[in-house]
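Service request form, structural biology core

Requester: graduate student, group of Dr. S.
Request type: structure prediction, single chain
Budget code: on file
Notes: please return the result as structure tokens.

Sequence provided:
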Amino acid sequence: MLTDLLTNGNCFGTIQSSLVLTYVWYKDRLLSSYIQLSTYHYTSTIVR
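Core staff response, request fulfilled:
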């Protein structure tokens, strides 16, 4: 009973941490692409 609880808790913790890692990765990707887009927009406005 206790071991089942421990393994389930560990499994849940692993899933949770992988979700957090995925979220952080996606957030970084979105942020960098947003920065690139805004920089591109900014420079194209200046050039014109």
